[in-house]
Amino acid sequence: MPGGMCSLQPRPDGIRQKWEVGKSMVTKNRKINILGTVYDLEYKLHTSEDLENCSGYADYTKKMIAVRKTYPDDYSGDVDYVIRETLRHEILHAFLYESGLGDNWEHKSMGHEETLIDWFAIQYPKLRKIYQELECED
User: Fold this and answer.
1) Mean pLDDT, each 10-residue run in order, the chain (138 residues)
2) How far apart are CA 65 and CA 1, in angstroms?
């Protein structure tokens, strides 16, 4: 995938929930601002060829983030969780790229260090909660 990596993110706690489209996530295509650069955010069906083997990707060459919004009927994971975590994951990739850290990683051929991206994407809700409790979220 030119300019981006593809991520497939399972829910770490193993909770399973049947997904109904539109249940709690707003999956509407829109434009988002990533450090002054406008990216198209596109939610796509699981049948989209570019999301065949992943949950999402950030394409820096097209200034686009794609996130899978549907899963096959036999998928038993919590799709709402996967969509939110994938969205955070891909936004982090875009932020790092737009801040000048596009190629400044040990694994340049793989893009950004996936462990770091996953850590932030998964831990952000916990960080946000403590920031809100301490009233230090700007």
Assistant:
1) 48 43 66 93 91 90 94 85 89 88 63 78 88 77
2) 12
